[in-house]
Amino acid sequence: MKLAKAAAVASLAAVMAQAQVNVGEQKPEASLPFSMTTVATFNLPWRLAFLPDGRMLVTEKPGPVWLVTQKGEKIQVTNTPAVYFQGQSGMHGVFVSPKYATDHSIYLTYAEPGEYGGGLALARAKLNATATSAALENYEVLWHQMPKGKGGQEGAAVAFSPDGKYLFLAVGDRQRMTPAQDPDQPEGKVLRLTLDGKPAPGNPNFGKTGASTIPLIDPPRDTELAKTAKVVSSYTFPVANLTPAETWASGFRTPYGLAFSASGELWEVEHGPAGGDELNLVEKGKNYGWPLVSYGNNYNGTPIPKPDTRPDLAKPAIYWVPVIAPGNLMFYSGTKTFPQWNGSGFVSGLATKSLNRFTFDGHGGAKAAERWDVGHRIRDVEEGPDGSLWMVEDANPGALIHVTPK
Fold first, then answer.
1. Which of 92, 185, 339, 369 has the lowest tally of Cβ within 10 angstroms?
2. Pure H helices in 18-155
3. In 3-state terms, the chain is what percent helix, strand and coil (to 5)?
4. Domains recognised in the chain with CATH numbers
5. What does each C-alpha distance from 174 to 65, 105, 151, 254, 274 come to in angstroms?
6. For residue 277, what are the CA distances in angstroms to 93, 271, 291, 351?
7. DSSP 89
8. Cα separation of 75 and 127, whole Å?
């Protein structure tokens, strides 16, 4: 009887954790509990990452990567790759290796140029940084999206597993929609890779082989690109060693944020179409529904079936209608500067010019806390070594903003 009761309670808790909540209409707080100071400016900054010495790396979408002090002094990193800079494509993320203390490696995600547009790439290099210079050495591309092509929404977020053995790479649907449901294409997926960019053992389809050719591009149906795009999906492009073995989960649209919580859960935020931004708990082998279902509609006004119509697909814990256009997701672990926020998740809002805090129960549940109107299109927010927050603004010039308690 006790076992049956415990099972019932656990089942109820699981159902409650999966309840979907719309926080799109959430009103901002009346005041800010922090001060914001602009330290430096950049041309369309995308991501920042802190090094052990307290300096940070900042990427700009047109291509440069900068080594920046907390006073705003900048050194351009040399030997960075060429990028395909157009629309939503360009240089994206920078991530410090979990083994940085011994290998001094960083990872970059960016749109790699090709004959027909670009494709998401994941690369690793050793950072040689002194007080006056910074350069990448032993540069190696670990993973390519193939085929390359037009379309934004590359995703390009990376999260390292808590044990430091694996990396998770978010790949957007590139505005092509249908590949998100094709197991033989990487678009619209969260991949689980070794630190060398190989399929990780334990993935749902590890060891299986996919198709040898795939469509060059699917016609985009949900954006402005659809008005001028030519349908070329009848063509195919040969792809060597294409395999679904990399895939951890599927059915994502624009996964710009990916991070592990303190309890070891992997969470993701993504843009919906016209409505329907999502915060998802990412679990092995699950399908998150895009483009089959959404809480939003297509940009041309045609409806999309709602997630409740497909109980076989995973639903978001939280969604936004209207949207906030999330820029990133991070989890706060500080105990001194903002101790009241320890364990909280932060999502930046581009469209709402907001910083949004969430609490997590460690069992698949998330709850919205505050929304603060910060007056800037925040692309990224990260925690500094002292527990203060740092944000970059999606603009040119875009501010690097230091957030400290009032």
1. 339
2. 100-103
3. 10, 40, 50
4. 38-405 (2.120.10.30)
5. 24, 28, 5, 8, 16
6. 21, 5, 13, 11
7. B
8. 13
Q: Is this prediction's pTM over 0.85?
A: yes
Tokens matching residue 278: 């999502």
Cα first-last separation, the chain = 54
Cα–Cα nearest to 399, from 377, 371, 372: 377
Alpha-carbon distance 183 to 214, whole Å? 11
Q: With CA atoms as reference, report the closest residue to 236 among 199, 185, 188.
A: 185
Pairing of strands 345-349, 45-50: unpaired
Count of CA atoms in the C-beta half-sphere (13 A) of 298: 17
Task: Report which secondary-structure segment, H or E, holds 383.
Answer: strand 378-383
C-alpha–C-alpha distance, residues 296 and 6, integer Å: 37
Extract the tokens encoding 354.
Answer: 């907001």
Q: How far apart are CA 389 and CA 406, in angstroms?
A: 13
Residues in contact with 130: Cβ distance below 8 Å, sequence separation at least 6, in sequence order: none
Distance CA 361, CA 203 (A): 26
- Could you tell me which of 91, 84, 142, 92 has the C-alpha nearest to residue 118? 84
Q: Are 118 and 112 in contact (CB under 8 A)?
A: yes
Collapsing DSSP to helix, strand or coil, 307 comes out as helix
Strand boundaries in 229-365, DSSP class E: 236-238, 247-250, 254-260, 266-271, 277-281, 318-320, 326-331, 345-349, 354-360
Residue with tokens 């910060």: 374
Q: Which residue is it, tokens 């960075």?
A: 80
Residue with tokens 């591009």: 217
Beta bridge partners of 215: 236
252 in Cβ contact with 267 (< 8 Å): no
Q: What is the C-alpha separation between 298 and 313, in angstroms, rounded?
A: 19
